[in-house]
Amino acid sequence: MEIKPPVPIIPAPIWRNIKDLQEWEQLHQKRPEGDKHSSAFEAITEGIHSFPGGFVVTTPADAFLNWARKSSVWPVTFGLACCAIEMMATFASRFDVERLGMVPWASPRHSDLMVVSGTVTIKMAPMLLRIYDQMPDPKWAVSMGSCANSGGPFRHGYHVVKGVDRVIPVDVYVPGCPPPPESLLNGLLLLQDQIAQFRRTGKRAAPNPKVD
Amino acid sequence: MTHEQAKTFISERFGSAQVEPASAEATAGGGMALTVTVPANDWRPFASFAKNELGCRFFSFSSAVDWKEQGLEVVAKVDNLDTGLSLVMKTKLGPGVSECQSLVPVYRGANWMERECYDMFGIRFNGHPDLRRILLGDDWVGHPLLKSYAVDTPYPPYR
Amino acid sequence: MTLDTPQATTHVELDYSGGERLTMNMGPQHPSAHGVFRAILTLEGETVVGVDAVIGYLHRCHEKLSETLTYAQYPSIASKTDYVAAMTSEFAYVMAAETIGKIEVPKRAQYLRVIAAELQRIASHLLWLGTWCMDMGGALGGGATIFLYAIRERESILDLFESLVGARLLYGFYQVGGTRYDIPPGWADACRKTIDMIDSRIGEYEGLLENNPFFQARAQGVGYISRELAEDVGIAGPLLRGSGVNFDLRRSAPYSSYEDFTFTVPVETAGDCFARYRVRMVEFRESIKIIRQALDKLPDGAISSRPGLKSVAQIRIPKGEAYSRVEGPRGEVGCYLIADGSAKPYRMKWRGASFSNLAVLPHIIPGHKVADVVAIMGSVDPVFGEVDR
Fold first, then answer.
1. What confidence score (pLDDT) does residue B50 get?
2. Cβ separation of A82 and C56 shorter than 8 Å?
3. C-beta separation of A135 from A112 below 8 A
4. Cα(C117)–Cα(C97) distance, rounded to whole angstroms?
5. Is the full-model pTM beyond 0.90?
6. How far apart are CA A171 and CA A162, in angstroms?
7. B146 touches chain C (CB under 8 A)
8. DSSP run (H or E) holding C49
9. Closest-CA residue to C181 (of C98, C282, C103, C87)
10. Full DSSP string of B70-96
11. Does C38 reach chain B within 8 Å, measured CB to CB?
12. For chain B, which chains pass the contact test of at least 3 CB pairs under 8 Å?
């Protein structure tokens, strides 16, 4: 029984005549600019200086640190209600967030992001504030779903807090009841753009950050 | 035991109970259902009668209704899973009364259900081992499901 | 293997007569993914001797809000009680209103309701399986295996719902008088393909789990619920059937044409977590059977006897009361409705399956270790929208 190798073996290109090499070079020259190196590299690079022996890339410390911060945002698993099921679906197989660097982590002491998914009730609000306080700075909060944005369908209830921004400061609001995982991913990517503008002094971005 | 037999059995033992055979549609699917209204003093004796003699060992739920001027009414439902007999027990507490006998000595499932009735309606159950609020915080003032409580009563500091 | 180390010559006897008890909070935020539940555990060493379950962190005032919303508006809100199996809650409410108002539901609508309810049961059990195995295995350890597989199957069912209703998780599919949407063309074939695929994969999961000695050690003998306790507390669904009581509402009190379908009701007598797991795994296959029969026999006709909602106050139910119950994935979901002739109910009570199921925890947890608490919670499968309403 033939055992196939696990990795496909791609034969190296063999230039049979000079025309193949010229075609290959032309193909690579016509490729779009952004395809040559990753956009993350483009985003943080301020200048590339050539030095004897190689290149030196300079970058502002803010851009570099913000790139590191936004590429590994660890959300604390804070599912309250129905939106928690959609949040779990976002963290699971089809709409994976681990490819963005987000590893859901149960302990608030080691996480950066709190996705408030579900209705915040008056009994739960002090617990939510306590978990938020236990998260170290810099931390962000995403309000997921209409219950967390404004109280949602239960806004007129006596036991419902009309929006989680009455308890903690929120950076991104994701609407929906519940927002499908695509919406939540959109919200998380918007959050990553916001984090890219985060200043070392702790000031957050202006209301409409420049989105590339 | 068919529901006719159950009806006669109940009327023999508890003369002051009003038994209405609920219509076949009233429990969807046509399970045999009786609605029995007993006076408040017979609440726990009737429950133990239902459990021991009628064989209704499955405790489904217990709740209350606020009929504004006529007072509160406590409802409970028990089932006999083998024969399919469903019994809905009701008792009217009368205007201004908010005390009732507890079913916890008879059915253990009544524990949380009666705590919820206390939380939502303010009914004190005599004989309940641990009567405290279950859904709302311990320092909540008011009983929300009473008709006199507005649904959007504000609660500072969350307004 | 023997060790040549000197043995201790003095021994200290620890006194566990009660003075060493520790109160530990398993707070409303914890990684075992079930929602907002707080268990204040009293521990003696590693063994739990007392449990005080604190609920209410998701009390969203459903019962009071239902008195302010009409019969046409409330079914969408009803989904949010049992949000994992949203169809069952809508089913109970809508059936109660139809019972009081003596509203006839057309046969096609009844079959569509059955198909939706059984698909919802499969989706809910997939989520149960995934989260239970993740709790027992750890999110970054082996537990995520079954979780990711189960969510993958669940996503294909949610795709079916999305093409039927438009929403993935919370729907407004059931209306008083029938259903709101009809199945689009090609949906029946997509449904058959999906359930065939799920049928073949359930066998894989059973093989993965039942040959695993760790799973057997954590699930067998843990969380024993006796038959008498089960009936006394009022738990229902797979918990009741795992303790030996042969009671399924679809069989004992059939509603919405369930009497037209042949299926078996799984009953296990062991009463532990493994028995409940076996009950749910068999229920997967039975639901698949029911869906196949319903799709084959789907009659033509109207999908609602009150179609075309023009105003929210259009449906008025005369005075009366009814208690309608539905066999949900977690047990008996019931709606006790008192109508007073207007467009809004006078009183509506949810008999939540998970509320009664959770009430059994203080009776069965004492005596187990802390790690077993997580396994038991997972096999009880609570959804806190139903518990706190």
1. 87
2. no
3. yes
4. 18
5. no
6. 17
7. no
8. strand C47-54
9. C87
10. TEEEEEEEEEETTTTEEEEEEEEEETT
11. no
12. A, C
